[in-house]
Known about the structure:
The chain is α+β, with helices and mostly antiparallel strands. The chain is 43% helix and 19% strand. It contains nine helices and eight strands. A six-stranded antiparallel beta sheet has the order 5-4-3-8-7-6, with helices on both faces. Strands 1-2 form a two-stranded antiparallel sheet. A hairpin with a 4-residue loop joins strand 1 (60-62) and strand 2. The longest helix is centred in the C-terminal third of the chain and has 19 residues, at 232-250. The radius of gyration is 20 Å and the shape is globular. It starts with 11 loop residues before the first helix and ends in a 5-residue tail after the last helix.
Amino acid sequence: MAGEAPDRDHMAALEKGLAVIECFDAGRDRLTIADVARATDLSRAAARRCLLTLTRIGYASFDGKFFTLTPRVLRLGHAWLASSALPQLVQPFLERLSEETHESSSASLLDGHEIVYIARSAQRRIMSVGLSVGTRLPASCTSMGRVLLAARDPADARARILAGKPRALTPHTVTDPDRLTEILAVVRAQGYCIVDQELELGLISIALPLINARGEVVAAFNLSGQVQRSSAAEMAERFLPSMRQLQMLLRPMIS
Length: 255
């Protein structure tokens, strides 16, 4: 059905269970019932039921105090990867782009106020944290995130920015919503985005949208490198032609 499902079709228990899974991350891999209740705004009783159910069906484990997720959770993400043609479609193109430019290339989707990596070809490790399929980063301070936000209605983009509560990750990070709105307008007009050391010091990236045959932005892709090798102006001059060619090649293939 289009739009929101009627209340009678809404499974609150499923929503709570998924919220519990999502509250685990790299910084919170071992959680107590109280931790989960705080992170999800659930009552302790509801958090306990969800955690025990997840443990019973193999998605979590319990050592008597802490709950942790099990590898079975990977089935949820794999289900999307296996059923979506987009990651498999863009992967070989990213690999070719990385080989030509000698820089790492990635593709991502917008999920709320974050981007989620769906494909990646790495030439070298460019960040202090590892990047891989499934990695989530703030949309507001990443080149792919800004490309994807720029494709949204401005009011929706601003709401996503505010929901993400932008914070300074480096001295260069833009966090002011008004300034970010101005940046998105520029990105929208020029069709690409360069982010210079806003996500991590020394890291610079350039991104373009992936557009389908109907003219809809469905994803974004980027090239990332170190400022010691390329400035923002140099990245645009060196890489935009190849990236725009890839964008045009993929357009008739993306549904």
